[in-house]
Write a structure and sequence with these properties.
Helices cover 18% and strands 36% of the residues. It has helices spanning 18-29, 42-48, 101-106, 130-135, 184-196, and strands at 7-8, 14-15, 33-38, 54-59, 63-65, 68-71, 78-88, 108-119, 142-148, 160-165, 168-174, 205-207, 215-216, 222-227, 231-238.
Length: 239
């Protein structure tokens, strides 16, 4: 039987039914959750003593569509990350046997090009221990949806990504920079949540980790990300 770990709610009571608890908080707070997955660089892994990805909860109310303008004063130490946003068509619920990669991929409804404007509530040069990072939602922030990628089933590993600031190329990457295949993080997360006992739900979106690292941005700059020739995302950070 899938393992069920003990967790506690905001007033310290033990939570036995995670699904019911999640519905309660979505109703209480008035918005839906989704998942933000991060693939830390080697320096961050060493600092936080990590051996793999980390992830956290974030909020669908922070999603928007390209092109978009943000006010710099409203962002907390923002960082630009080029990712894929994967939305599920059906549940990947807890069960005894592990999920296969093919099953996880078959649960996908659609894939969008995306930029996470990550926001860290701690100074980057003075990060807290891992529990503090997780409480921060793994630096979750704003989520800018670009075009839907209609050809995602043909594979995303070879898709090139170019990140420009004010027209100048600043970062390059490819889908394979995310665990070799940018859909593998979904599979990894499905297994994590299967073992925790709550799983993933239809309609949830998972940001799969950056292909271009974490690039600081400041007011007065314009961001453009090109995902091959299938999608472009544009963001302006107002001073």
């Amino acid at each position: 039987m899938a393992s069920h770990r003990t967790s506690f709610n905001h007033i310290g009571l033990c939570v036995a039914d995670r699904e019911r608890s999640r519905r309660f908080y979505e109703g209480l707070l008035g918005f839906q959750f989704w998942w933000d997955l991060e693939l830390p660089d080697e320096g961050t892994k060493k600092l936080l003593q990590l051996d793999g990805p980390i992830y956290g909860r974030t909020f669908r109310r922070f999603a928007c569509t390209s092109p978009v303008d943000f006010n710099a004063a409203e962002l907390l130490d923002p960082l630009i990350e080029c990712e894929f946003f994967v939305t599920l068509a059906r549940d990947l619920r807890p069960r005894d046997e592990p999920w296969t990669y093919a099953e996880a991929v078959d649960a996908i409804s659609e894939v969008h090009a995306g930029i996470e404007v990550a926001e860290c509530r701690y100074p980057r040069k003075a990060l807290p221990p891992l529990p503090g990072i997780l409480a921060d939602g793994s630096a979750s922030g704003r989520y800018v949806f670009g075009d839907r990628i209609e050809s995602w089933r043909d594979g995303l590993a070879s898709m090139p990504v170019r990140l420009e600031i004010d027209g100048a190329l600043r970062r390059e990457g490819a889908g394979a920079d995310v665990m070799g295949d940018p859909l593998r993080p979904l599979w990894w997360l499905a297994e994590q949540r299967r073992q925790w006992g709550d799983g993933l739900r239809a309609g949830e979106t998972i940001s799969t980790g950056s292909m271009t690292g974490m690039l600081p941005i400041r007011g007065g700059q314009h961001v453009r990300a090109r995902f091959g020739d299938v999608a472009t995302i544009e963001i302006t950070i107002e001073p």
